C-alpha cells in the first residue's frame, strides 16, 4: 500500500529513495488531466505533488527544449499548496482543472506576471489585468505553471522567431516544434505541463500540435473570448488548448468557452457539455476528404498516414467521401494579406510611449518611434507590418485588402456548401514533417505556404483539431486534421475521440535526448 | 474684392454627454487628475478590446434625425491609422465608409432670409488624449507630456456641405448647430472645455464659376467669434494672393487668436495615409427601424418650433421669442417662471434684460443662475403687488443674484418696502417743502417744472422707497394747497 | 507586383519603422516575392462578391452607459518607459 503523502513534501528527488515511490511521482507529469483528476479525487496525490513532478521534469528537459519563457516555480507551488489546503477544508470544488499545472502561451495577459509575446518590445511589460481565459482557469483553481515560448507576436510557424531563443522539438531536438504555439506544444509533448493554452491565427495551435504529436484544438471564432489575448490578426485569432488527448481538450474547451461581454466578437450561445459528447462512435457519420488537400507538394509519408487514418474511420463505420473546396489554393495569399493588414494596425501601439521598449538614443519624436520599433521588433514582425501597411495603403487597398476580403467570402461559401453534405472534414495539417531549425530562415514564402492546410479554418471561422496519426520513418510526428462547422465542436471532438479510442499514436511519448 | 465668391464648409466635433467613454467604462468627467480616468482599454494596452456604448449610438441617431439625415442601418466602425503620442492605439476608432447618418440639412437665418445648409455626414468616433508642452515642475524644453483622460470620450463629427458663402453664414450655422445639439441634450457644447470644436474648409472662386477653388483647412478656432475672425482673415489673405496672380496652396493652417492671423502647419504637411479599414474588433452597428421610429417620436421640441409656440402662446414679439429660445435652458427658465407668474412679456423683459446681463458680467450660464425662476417670479409678484417699486426691484434683484437670498427677505432686511402710507409720506413731503422754499415758491409762481425736482427729493429722502405715483399726487396736492393759500 | 526600395521607404515611414539600407533591400526583395504570389488572387473572379470583414453573426454588441472604476493612476503609469509625475513623457512635439 502506498503511503499518504507527508504534509511538507519538499525537495523532490532527494526525498525519494524508494523506486516505487519514485515511479509514482515521476509518472505524474506523464498523466492526463483526467488521470490526475481521478488521483486528486481519491486523495492519492496532492496538487503539490503533481506540480513538483512537473517542475522536476521542467528542470530536467528545459535546458534542452526551452519551451518556456518564464517558469513560475514558486508561484505555482504556492498556488498548489493553496489548492490543497482549500480542498482539504472543503472550501472549493474539485473541478477537472483544479490543481492541474497548465502552461500559458506568453500571448495571454497575466496580471502581475510579465507578458512578452516573444518580443523584446514587451520584455518588461507587466499587465494590470488577466485575460478572460486566464480568469476562467483561475476560477477553476488551475495552476498556472509558466509562460511558454512563441514566435514573436504569434507570427511564424516554427517558434524560431522569438526574442528569447528557439524552442526545440522533443521528438528531434534538431527540429522545430512548429509555431507559433511551439512552446506550449513542446511543453505538453515533453511532460513539462499537463495541458497548455495556445492561440491559432492560421494554424498556430494545430500545426505545432502535429509537429509535437499532441492534441491541439482551434475552436470556432467567437467561442472563446479574445479579451486579453494580445492581438495579431483580430478577425482570425482564437484561443484553444493543447493537450495530451481529446478528452483533455474537451475539458479545457469547457473551461475557457463562453460569451464575454468584453469581447464584441464572442458569441452569446450556451456552452454544451463537451466531455459528455465524447462517445467513441462514428457510425453513420460522413467524413469529407477535400481532394485539393492531397495535391502536389504533400510529403508521401504524410499522405499515407492520413489515408491510413481514414481507413480507421471506415472500419469504425464512418463513410469517407471525396469533396471539393475549390478555393483552397487561394487561402495562403488571402490569409497573408488579411493577417498582416490587421497586424500592421494592431501592432502600431508599440511606440515606446505607454509601455514596453523605448530606444535609448533618438533625436526627436519621429526618430524615437522609428528606432523603438526597428529595434523592438524582430525581422519577421517587421516584414509583416510592412506587408500589411502596404496592402492597406492608398492605391493598394482595393487590389490587396479588399480583394482578399472578397476571396475570403468565396472560401467561406466553399465550407458552408461542403458542410451541408459532410459531418467533418479530414485533411493533413502540414505538407511536411517538422523541418530543421534554420531551414526556412531565408525563405518566408515557403514557410507561409506550409500553412496551406490550416489557414482555411481561420479564414472561415470554423473549428479544427489536430490529433496524432502516425510517424515518419525517421520517427517524426504526423498530425491528422479534422474540421467541423461553426460551433460543431461536440461532433468534432467526438470524431477525434473515437480515433484515439482505437489508436495509440497519442500515447507515444517523446524521448527527449540531448 | 467682389470678384470672388467664398465657399465654406465646416467640420464640427461635439463631445457627447455620456457618463462613460465610448468603448470602456471610464468616466468622461472633465478636469480629473491626469491619467486617473484611464483603464487598460482606453490606454490601449496589449490584448484589450472595445465594446460600443449604446448611448453614443442613441445620441448619434437623435442628432441625425434632428438634422434631417437618413440613418444608416448598418454602419461600420473603422480604424484611422496614424502615429501621435496622444493616440494610444496609434489608430482612432472612427467611421469612414457608411457613417451612422448622412444627407441632412439645417436651416439658418441670415439677414431675414432662410438658407438651407446641407449636412454631408455625421459619424461617431473616439477622442484622443491631451498633450502639454510644459508642467509646473518641468518648464518648456525637451519634452511634451501626455494625459490620456480624454482618450475614448465619445465625439460626433458633423460635416457640412460647402454651402456657406460668408463668415457670417458660417457663424449662424454653428450657432444653429450648437442650439440644436443642446436642445437634443446630446452635448453641452462647451467650447472652453473643448466639447465643441470646429474646423473650417474655405476656398475662393471667381463669381459666376461653379468649379471649387483650392481649399484651405483652418484649425484651432475656439470660439464662434474666432471662427468668424479667422474666416475673414483667410478671405483677405486668399484674395490678396489671387489678385496678385499667385496660387493658393492646399494646406492646413492654424488660427492664432492673439495675432489675428492664420499660420501654415508645415510640420504636419507630411503626406497622410490613414489606411482606414473596418475594425475587426467591432461588429457593424445595426440600427433597427423600431429604434429609429422610437427616437423620432421622442425627439424634443427644437428651437424653431419652440419659437413659433412662444409667439403664439405667450404673444411675444418675434425678437423676444428668438432670444428666449436661443438656448433650451433659457427657454426652460422663462417658461418655468411664467408658469408661476403668468405675465409673459414682463418675465421676458427681465430674463432678456437683467438676468442675461448679470450672467454675462459674471461669465455664467443660465443653468448656473443663482436666482431660480421661482425666486424671480416671487420678486415680480412683489412689484405687481406694489410692495416694491420697479426701481427698487433692480436693487433687490442684484442682491438676490449675489447673495442667493429671496426677494421678500431682502426687502424686509433692508427695509425696502414701498412707502404707500399717506401719513408717513405727508410728514416727509412737508419736510422736503420746508427744506426747499425756493422751488416751492417757483411752483406757486406757476413754474410746474419744479414738481419733478421736489418728487426727486422725496424719493431721495426715502432712499427710493416712496410709492412714486402716490408721492407725485400728494406733493401736487400740497403745492396746490400752498398756492391757494 | 514588384515593390521598389523607394516604395518600401515610404511604407516604412507610414509604419514608423526606421530601416537601415540593408533591411530596406532585404524587405523589398522578400515583399516583391510575396506580392508576386498574392497577385495570383487576381485570377479569381470576385465580381459581385461582398467582402467579409467579419465572420460570425452580424449582431451589434453594446454596453450600457455605466461608469466603472478606472485604474489607479500609478497602476496606469506603471509600464511607462518615461514619465514625469502623473504624465507620460515624450520627446518634444513641434507644433
Automatic annotation (TrEMBL), chain C:
It catalyses: L-aspartyl-tRNA(Asn) + L-glutamine + ATP + H2O = L-asparaginyl-tRNA(Asn) + L-glutamate + ADP + phosphate + 2 H(+); L-glutamyl-tRNA(Gln) + L-glutamine + ATP + H2O = L-glutaminyl-tRNA(Gln) + L-glutamate + ADP + phosphate + H(+). GO terms for biological process: glutaminyl-tRNAGln biosynthesis via transamidation; regulation of translational fidelity; translation. Transmembrane segments: none annotated. Coiled coil: none annotated. Its EC number is 6.3.5.-. Keywords: ATP-binding, Ligase, Nucleotide-binding, Protein biosynthesis, Transferase. GO terms for molecular function: asparaginyl-tRNA synthase (glutamine-hydrolyzing) activity; ATP binding; glutaminyl-tRNA synthase (glutamine-hydrolyzing) activity; transferase activity. Signal peptide: none annotated. It comes from the Bacteria. InterPro entries: Asp/Glu-ADT_sf_sub_c, GatC. Pfam families: GatC. SUPFAM superfamilies: Glu-tRNAGln amidotransferase C subunit. Belongs to the GatC family. Allows the formation of correctly charged Asn-tRNA(Asn) or Gln-tRNA(Gln) through the transamidation of misacylated Asp-tRNA(Asn) or Glu-tRNA(Gln) in organisms which lack either or both of asparaginyl-tRNA or glutaminyl-tRNA synthetases. The reaction takes place in the presence of glutamine and ATP through an activated phospho-Asp-tRNA(Asn) or phospho-Glu-tRNA(Gln). Heterotrimer of A, B and C subunits. This is Aspartyl/glutamyl-tRNA(Asn/Gln) amidotransferase subunit C. It comes from candidate division KSB3 bacterium.
Amino acid at each position: 500500500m502506498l503511503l499518504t503523502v507527508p504534509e511538507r513534501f519538499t525537495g523532490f528527488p532527494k526525498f525519494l529513495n524508494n523506486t516505487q515511490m519514485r515511479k509514482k511521482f515521476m509518472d505524474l507529469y506523464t498523466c492526463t488531466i483526467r488521470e490526475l483528476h481521478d488521483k486528486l479525487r481519491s486523495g492519492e496525490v496532492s496538487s503539490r505533488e503533481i506540480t513538483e513532478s512537473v517542475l522536476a521534469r521542467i528542470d530536467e528537459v528545459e535546458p534542452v527544449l526551452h519551451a518556456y519563457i518564464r517558469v513560475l516555480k514558486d508561484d505555482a507551488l504556492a498556488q498548489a499548496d493553496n489548492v490543497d489546503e482549500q480542498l482539504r477544508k472543503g472550501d472549493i470544488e474539485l473541478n477537472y482543472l483544479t490543481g492541474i499545472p497548465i502552461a500559458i502561451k506568453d500571448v495571454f495577459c497575466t496580471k502581475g506576471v510579465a507578458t512578452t509575446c516573444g518580443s523584446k518590445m514587451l520584455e518588461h511589460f507587466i499587465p494590470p489585468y488577466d485575460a478572460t481565459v486566464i480568469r476562467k482557469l483561475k476560477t477553476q483553481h488551475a495552476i498556472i505553471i509558466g509562460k511558454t515560448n512563441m514566435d514573436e507576436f504569434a507570427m511564424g510557424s516554427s517558434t524560431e522567431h522569438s526574442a528569447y531563443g528557439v524552442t526545440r522539438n522533443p521528438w528531434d531536438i534538431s527540429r522545430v516544434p512548429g509555431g507559433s504555439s511551439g512552446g506550449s506544444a513542446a511543453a505538453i509533448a515533453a511532460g513539462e505541463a499537463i495541458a497548455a493554452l495556445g492561440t491559432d491565427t492560421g494554424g498556430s495551435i494545430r500545426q505545432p500540435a502535429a509537429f509535437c504529436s499532441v492534441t491541439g484544438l482551434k475552436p470556432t471564432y467567437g467561442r472563446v473570448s479574445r479579451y486579453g489575448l494580445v492581438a495579431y490578426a483580430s478577425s482570425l485569432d482564437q484561443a484553444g488548448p493543447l493537450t495530451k488527448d481529446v478528452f483533455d481538450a474537451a475539458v479545457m474547451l469547457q473551461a475557457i468557452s463562453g460569451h464575454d461581454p468584453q469581447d464584441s466578437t464572442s458569441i452569446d450561445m450556451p456552452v454544451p457539455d463537451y466531455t459528455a459528447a465524447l462517445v467513441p462512435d462514428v457510425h453513420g457519420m460522413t467524413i469529407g476528404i477535400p481532394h485539393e488537400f492531397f495535391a502536389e507538394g504533400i510529403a508521401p509519408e504524410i499522405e499515407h498516414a492520413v489515408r491510413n487514418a481514414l481507413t480507421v474511420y471506415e472500419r469504425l463505420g464512418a463513410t469517407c467521401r471525396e469533396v471539393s473546396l475549390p478555393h483552397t489554393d487561394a487561402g495562403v495569399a488571402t490569409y497573408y494579406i488579411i493577417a498582416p493588414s490587421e497586424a500592421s494596425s494592431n501592432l502600431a501601439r508599440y511606440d515606446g510611449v505607454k509601455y514596453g521598449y523605448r530606444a535609448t538614443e533618438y533625436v526627436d519624436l519621429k526618430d524615437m518611434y522609428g528606432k523603438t520599433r526597428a529595434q523592438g521588433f524582430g525581422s519577421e514582425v517587421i516584414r509583416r507590418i510592412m506587408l500589411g501597411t502596404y496592402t492597406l495603403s492608398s492605391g493598394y487597398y482595393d487590389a490587396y485588402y479588399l480583394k482578399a476580403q472578397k476571396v475570403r467570402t468565396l472560401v467561406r461559401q466553399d465550407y458552408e456548401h461542403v458542410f451541408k453534405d459532410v459531418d467533418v472534414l479530414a485533411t493533413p495539417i502540414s505538407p511536411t514533417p517538422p523541418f530543421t531549425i534554420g531551414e526556412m530562415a531565408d525563405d518566408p514564402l515557403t514557410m507561409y505556404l506550409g500553412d496551406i492546410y490550416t489557414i482555411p479554418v481561420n479564414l472561415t471561422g470554423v473549428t479544427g483539431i489536430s490529433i496524432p496519426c502516425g510517424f515518419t520513418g525517421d520517427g517524426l510526428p504526423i498530425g491528422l486534421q479534422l474540421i467541423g462547422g461553426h460551433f460543431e465542436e461536440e461532433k468534432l471532438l467526438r470524431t477525434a475521440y473515437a480515433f484515439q479510442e482505437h489508436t495509440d499514436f497519442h500515447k507515444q511519448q517523446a524521448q527527449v535526448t540531448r | 474684392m467682389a470678384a470672388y465668391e467664398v465657399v465654406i464648409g465646416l467640420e464640427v466635433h461635439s463631445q457627447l454627454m455620456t457618463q462613460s467613454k465610448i468603448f470602456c467604462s471610464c468616466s468622461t468627467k472633465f478636469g480629473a487628475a491626469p491619467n486617473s480616468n484611464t483603464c487598460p482599454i482606453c490606454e490601449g494596452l496589449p490584448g484589450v478590446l472595445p465594446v460600443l456604448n449604446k448611448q453614443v449610438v442613441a445620441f448619434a441617431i437623435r442628432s441625425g434625425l434632428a438634422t434631417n439625415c437618413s440613418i444608416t442601418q448598418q454602419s461600420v466602425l473603422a480604424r484611422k491609422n496614424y502615429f501621435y503620442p496622444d493616440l494610444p492605439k496609434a489608430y482612432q476608432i472612427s467611421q469612414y465608409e457608411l457613417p451612422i447618418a448622412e444627407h441632412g440639412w439645417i436651416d439658418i437665418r441670415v439677414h431675414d432670409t432662410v438658407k438651407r445648409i446641407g449636412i454631408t455626414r455625421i459619424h461617431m468616433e473616439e477622442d484622443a488624449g491631451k498633450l502639454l508642452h510644459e508642467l509646473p515642475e518641468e518648464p518648456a524644453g525637451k519634452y511634451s507630456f501626455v494625459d490620456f483622460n480624454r482618450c475614448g470620450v465619445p465625439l460626433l463629427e458633423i460635416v457640412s456641405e460647402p454651402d456657406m458663402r460668408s463668415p457670417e453664414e458660417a457663424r449662424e450655422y454653428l450657432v444653429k448647430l450648437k442650439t440644436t445639439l443642446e436642445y437634443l441634450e446630446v452635448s453641452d457644447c462647451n467650447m472652453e472645455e473643448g466639447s465643441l470644436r470646429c474646423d473650417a474648409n474655405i476656398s475662393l472662386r471667381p463669381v459666376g464659376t461653379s468649379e471649387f477653388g483650392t481649399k484651405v483647412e483652418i484649425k484651432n478656432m475656439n470660439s464662434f467669434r474666432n471662427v468668424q475672425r479667422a474666416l475673414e482673415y483667410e478671405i483677405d489673405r486668399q484674395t490678396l494672393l489671387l489678385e496678385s496672380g499667385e496660387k493658393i496652396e492646399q494646406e492646413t493652417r492654424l488660427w492664432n487668436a492673439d495675432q489675428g492671423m492664420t499660420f501654415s502647419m508645415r510640420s504636419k504637411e507630411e503626406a497622410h495615409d490613414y489606411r482606414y479599414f473596418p475594425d475587426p474588433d467591432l461588429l457593424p452597428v445595426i440600427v433597427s427601424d423600431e429604434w429609429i421610429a422610437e427616437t423620432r417620436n421622442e425627439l424634443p421640441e427644437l428651437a424653431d418650433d419652440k419659437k413659433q409656440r412662444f409667439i403664439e402662446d405667450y404673444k411675444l414679439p418675434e425678437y423676444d421669442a428668438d432670444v428666449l429660445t436661443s438656448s433650451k435652458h433659457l427657454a426652460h427658465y422663462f417658461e418655468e417662471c411664467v408658469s408661476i407668474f403668468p405675465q409673459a412679456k414682463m418675465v421676458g423683459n427681465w430674463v432678456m434684460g437683467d438676468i442675461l446681463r448679470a450672467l454675462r458680467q459674471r461669465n455664467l450660464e443660465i443653468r448656473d443662475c443663482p436666482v431660480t425662476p421661482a425666486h424671480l417670479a416671487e420678486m415680480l409678484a412683489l412689484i405687481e403687488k406694489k410692495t416694491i417699486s420697479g426701481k427698487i426691484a433692480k436693487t433687490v434683484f442684484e442682491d438676490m443674484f449675489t447673495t442667493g437670498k429671496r426677494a421678500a427677505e431682502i426687502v424686509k432686511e433692508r427695509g425696502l418696502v414701498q412707502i404707500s402710507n399717506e401719513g408717513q409720506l405727508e410728514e416727509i413731503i412737508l419736510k422736503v417743502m420746508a427744506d426747499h422754499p425756493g422751488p416751492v415758491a417757483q411752483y406757486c409762481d406757476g413754474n410746474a417744472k419744479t414738481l419733478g425736482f421736489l418728487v426727486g427729493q422725496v424719493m431721495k429722502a426715502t432712499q427710493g422707497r416712496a410709492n412714486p405715483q402716490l408721492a407725485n399726487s400728494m406733493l401736487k396736492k400740497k403745492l396746490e394747497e400752498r398756492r391757494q393759500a | 507586383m514588384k515593390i521598389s526600395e523607394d516604395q518600401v521607404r515610404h511604407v516604412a515611414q507610414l509604419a514608423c519603422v526606421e530601416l537601415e539600407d540593408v533591411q530596406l533591400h532585404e524587405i523589398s526583395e522578400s515583399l516583391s516575392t510575396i506580392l508576386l504570389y498574392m497577385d495570383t488572387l487576381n485570377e479569381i473572379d470576385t465580381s459581385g462578391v461582398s467582402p467579409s470583414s467579419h465572420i460570425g453573426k452580424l449582431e451589434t454588441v453594446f454596453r450600457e452607459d455605466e461608469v466603472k472604476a478606472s485604474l489607479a493612476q500609478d497602476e496606469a503609469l506603471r509600464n511607462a518607459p518615461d514619465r514625469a509625475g502623473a504624465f507620460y513623457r515624450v520627446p518634444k512635439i513641434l507644433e
